[in-house]
């Protein structure tokens, strides 16, 4: 999965640092990410940005994390201009999943998540005062009332519902992603994860499940979530009652009919392939 980057090591301890010419920079604007496209798409270094922009932007940088000895910094949206540059360009953030190798994709996804955190918390939700970046931890702090906000991590379940040699596959309604997926949903207040599994399966496809078994979890920066995977067995009738506001399709599919060209990026894909290959 995308976070499994060994032998590379991800370090997310909070520091206040200044970028060096060899530091990597992450810059996002209006749903796009800045990438170097000279050979293949890759995250640019700070030295490339300085050459392109002509001005030092180190005062607009926030240290995010390191992978091995590579440091990554976020540059705020107003700091740079790309006018006349031929090596750097903005690309839709949807390309992040396709960056190679996988640990580069992981870095870009986490950078996008932290960009959203800073962008969405510029003002205090309690009193409306402009927030300030903390100097001791990764948070936004209100200088007026002291309200502190941390990066959002929402728990959500991914559920592989099985019925003998069949797996329940779904497609989202109204989304760009059109491949088969699994039942999924966010945990509500007061719920255990297992209760979320039962509720989401009932709400989305009208089915009851039993023998709920935890499989694995995955930090999913694309939706600021912690995904928790479960396998569950059908309990009762297999008749699907589709919630068309959430899903466009839901079908029971035999192992041999499940597509085998899923990637190793997501927990959803791993669980689907696990069932297809008779390992779950």
UniProtKB/TrEMBL annotation:
It catalyses: a 5'-end NAD(+)-phospho-ribonucleoside in mRNA + H2O = a 5'-end phospho-adenosine-phospho-ribonucleoside in mRNA + beta-nicotinamide D-ribonucleotide + 2 H(+). One of its GO terms (cellular component) is cytosol. Gene3D superfamilies: 3.90.79.20, Nucleoside Triphosphate Pyrophosphohydrolase. Its cofactor is Mg(2+); Zn(2+). InterPro entries: NAD-cap_RNA_hydrolase_NudC, NudC-like_C, NUDIX_hydrolase-like_dom_sf, NUDIX_hydrolase_CS, NUDIX_hydrolase_dom, Znr_NADH_PPase. Keywords: Hydrolase, Magnesium, Metal-binding, NAD. Pfam families: NUDIX (PF00293), Zn_ribbon_NUD (PF09297). GO terms for molecular function: metal ion binding; NADH pyrophosphatase activity. The keyword Glycoprotein does not apply. Its EC number is 3.6.1.22. Residues 151-275 form the Nudix hydrolase domain. This is NAD(+) diphosphatase. It comes from Hungatella effluvii.
